[in-house]
Design goal:
With 144 residues, this protein is an alpha/beta fold. It has two domains: 31 residues; 108 residues, Nucleic acid-binding proteins (OB fold (Dihydrolipoamide Acetyltransferase, E2P), Beta Barrel), CATH 2.40.50. It contains five helices and six strands. It has a five-stranded mixed β-barrel. Strand 2 and strand 3 form a beta hairpin. Helix 2 packs across helix 3. The protein is elongated. The mean pLDDT is 89.
C-alpha cells in the first residue's frame, strides 16, 4: 500500500515536471522579439568611432553598448545574403568593421529602403549591439 502511494506521488511529480518543462520551452521559442524600429537609439555614432572604441577598450565598450539599441552609419564594404534570407551589411572594413544583420522579416518589411544600399554607398542602420567577435555585431537591424 505504501509503495503504491509513493509510486503515485512520483508519477504525478514527474508528469508535473514534464508539463512545466514543455511550457518553459514553448515560452522561450515563442517569446516576442524586440521591435527595434519602435525603439529610440541610445547612441548614434559613426562606424569608425564605434570600431575605435572597441579596439581601444573592448570591456568598457561592451559595458557601454552591449544589448543596447544603437544607430550606426558608415560606408558599405560588402553585402551578403544568408541562407535564411537575412542580409548582412559590412560597414567600413570587411574583416574588422561593423556587421549589421537585417533579419528576413525586416528584409521583407524594408525592401525598398534596402534596395537603395549598394557597395560603396553610405548606410545607416539601427540595431542591437551584441558585442565584438572579429567585427562588431549589430543584430535585428533596420535601415534608417
Amino acid at each position: 500500500m505504501k509503495k503504491k502511494k509513493m509510486l503515485r506521488i512520483f508519477l504525478w511529480t514527474f508528469a508535473l515536471g514534464i508539463i512545466i518543462g514543455f511550457a518553459g520551452v514553448y515560452y522561450v521559442f515563442n517569446m516576442p522579439r524586440r521591435n527595434i524600429s519602435m525603439e529610440n537609439a541610445v547612441y548614434t555614432l559613426n562606424a569608425k568611432l564605434l570600431i575605435s572604441e572597441f579596439k581601444k577598450d573592448e570591456t568598457s565598450a561592451n559595458t557601454k553598448y552591449l544589448d543596447k539599441t544603437i544607430s550606426v552609419q558608415g560606408e558599405i564594404k560588402s553585402i551578403r545574403t544568408l541562407d535564411n534570407h537575412s542580409i548582412v551589411f559590412s560597414l567600413e572594413d570587411g574583416m574588422e568593421g561593423v556587421s549589421c544583420t537585417v533579419d528576413s522579416v525586416d528584409v521583407l518589411n524594408n525592401s525598398s529602403k534596402l534596395s537603395q544600399f549598394t557597395k560603396g554607398s553610405t548606410g545607416k542602420f539601427k540595431g542591437r549591439c551584441s558585442g565584438m567577435l572579429m567585427d562588431i555585431q549589430i543584430i535585428n537591424c533596420v535601415p534608417e
